[in-house]
Write a structure and sequence with these properties.
Blueprint: H1 4-22, H2 24-27, H3 29-36, H4 40-49, H5 54-68, H6 70-90, H7 94-123, H8 128-136, H9 138-157, H10 159-180, H11 200-233, H12 238-266, H13 269-286, H14 293-304, H15 308-312, H16 324-353, H17 357-377
Helix pairs in contact: 1-7, 1-8, 1-9, 1-10, 4-16, 5-6, 5-7, 5-16, 6-7, 6-10, 7-8, 8-12, 9-10, 9-12, 11-12, 11-16, 11-17, 12-13, 12-14, 13-14, 13-17, 16-17
Length: 387
Amino acid sequence: MRNRWGILAVLFTVRATMAFQFQSVAAVAPLLGSEFGIGLADIGVLIGLYFAPGVGLALPGGAIGQRFGDKTTVLGALLLMLVGSAVMAFAASWSIQIAGRLVAGAGGVILSVQLTKMVTDWFAGREIATAMAIFVNSWPAGVAISLLALPLIGTAYGVGAVHLGVAALIGCGIVLLAIGYRSPAGSGVTSTTTTLRLDRNAGVAVIAAGLIWGLFNVGFAIIFSFGPSMLVERGWSIAAAGSTISIVLWLAVGSVPLGGFLADRTKRPEFILIASCIVFAMLMIALPRSDAVLPIIIALGLVCGQPAGPIMSLPARVLQPQTRAIGMGVFFTVFYVCMMLGPVIGGACAKWTDSAVAAFDFGALMILACPLVLWGFNRIPATTPRA
């Protein structure tokens, strides 16, 4: 395929398999609890473990792709994801479930880092903002499909069938990438530009930006990680709870580019970031305490994606072209640390109070922390990276 928009469609679909796999635990959390005799805290650990390999793999992820090639690296990552789902499908113990989740997460981390680089290769200097907005939306789209499909599969055929369904989708992703992707001309040429290193201020600023992105995504993930369990606690069926929470993800597909458009249109990205985070947090606090579930779900979907664009623009303010590789490695490392720990803490809060409502309150607190970290980010002096 030679059309860059067709290539983007391939990469979008492949990344959506990662989101689909990530959500496979939360989508059938009540069934997992019954089958393995575990609680919400253990579910939170299993959810967070998907991102645990990112702590060690985010930084070298780009180097792995450079060594073996983009397509080969992504196919290898998809194979790891496939193996992880297969292990979880046939696991008879909780420890094997954990092992399978870690293997799948390792593949997912490499996949995410490499696919982001591949989109950049195809769109650098040509509609890059639009392309990245579309690409980022593969995550809520994949999670939403998971929430719709997997509870039905799990209820009808059991937890093992859920993971086999995930493996089947990943297999389709492998075939699609193998026959539908090629690298753009000149993408394999190694740059001879002098490599710069981050100085202290730039490094701290990138860490702050990564922390904002991580905290935001922890709050966002709480919705679909503990939302189904929260509604089941209130008497909803597993299928109804999953499909209702999925509305947030479907609407987020539109609210992510909307936030970017408003930020560019008003020239006030930080105002959009702060205002939408505050409204987002208030809605998270209200959802488990209100009978108006559907209106709040719709409002959440319209608001929750709007900070994404302004947040993702922060690293570009402190990174030079020659430091983007190491800078984005740091950025994603911080993000994966947050995403590894966030669901675990959220699950612990739910266990402590014996209710998923506490996880939502924790998520709202993480969202409210984003403007505070942004305040610190803006007070880090700008500096020039040194060779």
